[in-house]
Amino acid sequence: MNGVTISFDKSRTYINLMLNPSEFTSEVDIREIKKQLESGETKRIYVSEKALKSACDTANHYFKTGDGTIVQERIGERKNAEVEFRVPDDGMHANLVLTTPYGGKLPALSTIKSLAIKNRVIRGVSTKKIESMLSNARRAEPGTVLEETIAKGLPAKNGKNSKFIPLVPNALERVLKPQADDGERVDMRNLGEIICVKVNTPVLRRTAPTQGRSGFDVKGNKLPAVAGEWVDFKMGSGTVVSDDDANLLMSAISGMPKYRDQIMNIDDTFICNGVNVGTGHVNYEGAVLVNGDVTEKMQIKAAGDVTINGFVESAHIEAGGDIIITEGAMGKVNDSQGEFQCKLVASGSIHVQHGQGIDIQCGGNITVGRQLAYSRLRCGGAVIVGQIDKPMGNLFACDIISQDRVEAGTLGAVSGSTLKVDFSPGFNQLLERKDSLDELLRQIRENNLKHKEKIALIQGKKIPKELRHKAAEALELFNNESALLEWLENKANDVKSAKESYQSDIKLIANKRLYPGVSAKLNNRNWRSEREYDRAQIHYDAHQWHYEPLI
């Protein structure tokens, strides 16, 4: 282009543009100059759009007016890379911000490390991350801003409080883990001895709290850990702390151990060889262990666990803990009144090896060893028929209300006998709690907002000395109300999470086969099998029941 000269200064750092309007044949085109700058040595050098436009506009004006004044302008320069470190207030990480150079120099790894130390980024620096950024910077366009975390601190790991380790298993745990014979095979009939501990037997050990591990931030400051605390024994009935070891709990009486909610109880145990017309009914303020059968129309009521090493026929059994029947249970059903002659009622869980014609009610899980049929079940947990790790038992012709999964090998029967599972009651209880909490939360939120405005109004005014204590009382009440509001919001979130978990947990699982006549219900959402399925799972999602084959 005539009249256009682009040159470097003596240090070859800056680009100078000289425009001579007297040599122009036409107005200078800024696009042509840019095109020339984008080739050769000036290709990667920073060019100021503003300076370039100003020079071109001035030269074009001189050209149009016939003025031959030469326009000289510094329009560009070499720029080295820019390095910046960003460290948040907590100092737990540091970001490197690297702006790539315009024809200038890129810093070496050692330079960046030195700059990091100057910026108090001392610990947790990753050489690999820096090298990776430098590699990317060499390939990037000039002026590209790269940012990456190149240093991380180590958060302190607080110590754990002391833990409790039961030294004897609960009866139900023992039953659900069949004991192995001398060989590798497991004998399903050998359910292990039911443990009754003697006086001065170690039953619970307390472990020492851990000290934790200290950490550091990227500035090199040490972050101390909070040591765990000793947790006191929650003394259950029938236990005492050992004289020789303050971390060991001993049995003070002979009885059946029961560990629940970090409390070990030794239930005073009534032991008999059977319950029949000869022994009479059993009503005991402790645990009951029956090494024999319970015959027709007999009753057992216990405050603790009831363990029966035998068969139960048309009896009534109530327990404040678990009910464990190592053999079967069977009863007659009065068809006209729908009454079951065999009833099992427990606050905890219920286990029976096999059953037919029984009414089961419990707050925990119902586990069945082999098969359950023609029965009514109400539980606050799951219904599992078969071994716990892989249920392969049979469940059919039952009416079930459950709050967790129902799992067996086969659900239903070839005959098409109905198996009804209703998950609604537990879900409706959660909905009622949620609605009550939401309504209470709405009212307190409205009140808290009004009170916040009043407090702000009071604090914005000058309060007479004699009324200051009243203002302080009002502020304290407002703070208490705000704390209550926060607590309720956390509770509402917990209930919301419980509702979502409930819907994801409820399901029917058939590990071998699912027959026609099996139905699942959650309020007005129903599913019923109209044909035979191989291994299948029926689960609830997005307000609908879904069938899914198990592979």
UniProtKB/TrEMBL annotation:
Domain Flagellar Assembly Protein A N-terminal region: 84-261
Coiled-coil zones: 427-454
InterPro entries per record: FapA (IPR005646), FapA_b_solenoid (IPR046865), FapA_N (IPR046866)
Pfam family, one: FapA
Keyword Methyltransferase attached: no
Keywords: Coiled coil
Keyword Coiled coil: yes
PANTHER family: POLYMERASE-RELATED, RNA-BINDING PROTEIN KHPB N-TERMINAL DOMAIN-CONTAINING PROTEIN
Record's protein name: Flagellar Assembly Protein A N-terminal region domain-containing protein
